[in-house]
């Protein structure tokens, strides 16, 4: 008997659907450097206001505005004539005091000899001896006055207190200059190296300290944080800096503390007041987990999850907590363990509980040294070689 051509075959005889093929990566831990991007401002290493230590008429300016000067260079000249007169007067007073001392000494010596022969009274000798001592004191006072007059004459040469770049002249020739408490004549700033003052929240700084204390992060090899700067235009500054210290007082209005970085500035690219972004390496996470971006899926409410392949090759959804990005690779803060298999390809073919045919895919290599930070991209960590 022939069966009809449209008779259905028994369900048991139909072939089972083949398990879909999906690509996966195996979760593995690796050490990464914890890097924070923090805002900062450039500050001169040293800054000094040029002031006159004597009052007088400004007669010369001996520098080019905006140029580099060295400590001790002559910057301004104040009219020395009044101070030369004062010095001459002080020297004359000293000469008079020294002559008086010579006479008083001779008188005391004569009376000492007469007293020994009992031809002068003790009172006469005592008076002569006191006059000698008074003359000695007057000589000492006259010498001090002479030295002061000489010092003030030297102060008419206004010299650079430090080496650095001098700004614009704040007073011109012909101006009457006040003493040290008056208007500054110019400002000198030392700009190689420079400081960069960066700010970090107290909460983040405390978390970093806790992680270092409990071993979740390990300290850097040399104990000091390495710092790279990103300039306002987005380019990487070619010289690395080092973290010197953090302030002990938080700003009450912002809840932030200041961290000071010292960084070379041989070509003068960094100017005082300039805004920069600092990538600060603050510790090493020895057991970080990184996944390629395609492994991270999002739920309807925006939470991160991954598809995990179990031991029986069945897939399940697993929520994860994602951290910062390392060179385009997501760090996983929680939700995965080393050795688990995570789907990275073939999501459209699978549903929860489905059995799959796993195909291993090597994840994109993510290697970045501390000194290589990608342009203006915001980094949270860097993998350790």
Task: Summarize the SSE layout with pairings.
Blueprint: E1 21-26, E2 29-50, E3 56-61, E4 68-69, E5 74-78, H1 81-116, H2 122-154, E6 157-159, E7 164-166, E8 176-177, E9 186-201, H3 202-214, E10 226-230, E11 241-246, E12 256-263, E13 275-291, E14 297-298, E15 304-309, E16 315-319, E17 321-326, E18 329-334, E19 341-345, E20 357-360, E21 381-383
Parallel strand pairs: 1-20
Antiparallel strand pairs: 1-19, 2-9, 2-13, 2-21, 3-5, 3-8, 4-7, 5-6, 7-9, 9-12, 10-11, 10-13, 11-12, 13-18, 14-15, 15-16, 15-19, 17-18
Helix pairs in contact: 1-2
Keywords: Coiled coil
Pfam family, one: BSH_RND
GO biological process, one term: response to antibiotic
What features would you describe in this structure?
The chain is an alpha+beta fold. The chain folds into 3 domains: 21-43 and 192-383, Efflux pump adaptor protein, beta barrel domain (Elongation Factor Tu (Ef-tu), domain 3, Beta Barrel); 52-79 and 156-184, RNA polymerase II/Efflux pump adaptor protein, barrel-sandwich hybrid domain (OB fold (Dihydrolipoamide Acetyltransferase, E2P), Beta Barrel), CATH 2.40.50.100; 81-154, Helix hairpin bin (Helix Hairpins, Orthogonal Bundle), CATH 1.10.287. Helix content is 21%, strand content 36%. It is built from 3 helices and 21 strands. The chain has helices at 81-116, 122-154, 202-214, and strands spanning 21-26, 29-50, 56-61, 68-69, 74-78, 157-159, 164-166, 176-177, 186-201, 226-230, 241-246, 256-263, 275-291, 297-298, 304-309, 315-319, 321-326, 329-334, 341-345, 357-360, 381-383. Strands 1, 14, 15, 16, 19 and 20 form a 6-stranded mixed β-sheet that branches. A hairpin with a 5-residue loop joins strand 15 and strand 16. The radius of gyration is 41 Å and the shape is elongated. The model is unreliable at 1-5 and 364-385 (pLDDT under 50).
């Amino acid at each position: 008997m022939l069966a009809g051509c449209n008779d259905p075959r028994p369900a048991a005889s139909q072939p089972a659907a083949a398990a879909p093929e999906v690509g996966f990566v195996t979760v593995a831990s690796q050490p990464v450097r914890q890097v924070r991007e923090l805002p900062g401002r450039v500050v001169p290493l040293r800054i000094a206001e040029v002031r006159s230590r004597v009052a007088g008429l400004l007669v010369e300016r001996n520098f080019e505005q905006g140029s580099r000067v060295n400590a001790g260079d002559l910057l301004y000249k104040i009219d020395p004539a009044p101070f030369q007169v004062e010095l001459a007067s002080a020297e004359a007073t000293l000469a008079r005091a020294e002559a008086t001392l010579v006479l008083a000494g001779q008188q005391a010596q004569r009376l000492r000899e007469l007293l020994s022969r009992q031809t002068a009274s003790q009172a006469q000798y005592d008076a002569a001896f006191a006059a000698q001592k008074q003359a000695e004191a007057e000589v000492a006072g006259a010498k001090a006055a002479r030295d002061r007059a000489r010092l003030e004459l030297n102060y008419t040469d206004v010299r650079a207190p430090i080496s650095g770049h001098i700004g614009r002249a704040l007073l011109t020739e012909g101006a009457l200059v006040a003493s040290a408490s008056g208007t500054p004549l110019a400002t000198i700033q030392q700009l190689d190296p420079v400081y960069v003052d960066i700010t970090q929240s107290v909460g983040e700084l405390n978390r970093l300290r806790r992680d270092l204390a409990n071993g979740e992060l390990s300290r850097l090899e040399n104990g000091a944080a390495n710092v790279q700067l990103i300039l306002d235009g987005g380019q990487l500054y070619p010289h690395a800096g080092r973290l010197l210290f953090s302030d002990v007082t938080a700003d009450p209005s912002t809840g932030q503390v200041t961290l000071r970085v010292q960084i070379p500035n041989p070509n003068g690219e960094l100017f005082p007041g300039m805004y920069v972004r600092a990538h600060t390496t603050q510790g090493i996470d020895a057991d970080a987990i990184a996944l390629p971006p395609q492994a991270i899926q999002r739920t309807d409410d925006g939470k991160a999850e991954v598809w995990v392949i179990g031991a029986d090759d069945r897939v399940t959804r697993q929520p994860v907590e994602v951290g910062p990005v390392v060179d385009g690779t997501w760090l996983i803060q929680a939700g995965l363990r080393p050795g688990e298999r995570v789907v990275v390809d073939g999501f459209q073919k699978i549903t929860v509980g489905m059995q799959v045919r796993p195909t291993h895919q090597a994840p994109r290599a993510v290697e970045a040294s501390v000194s290589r930070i990608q342009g203006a991209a915001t980094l949270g960590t860097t993998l350790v070689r």
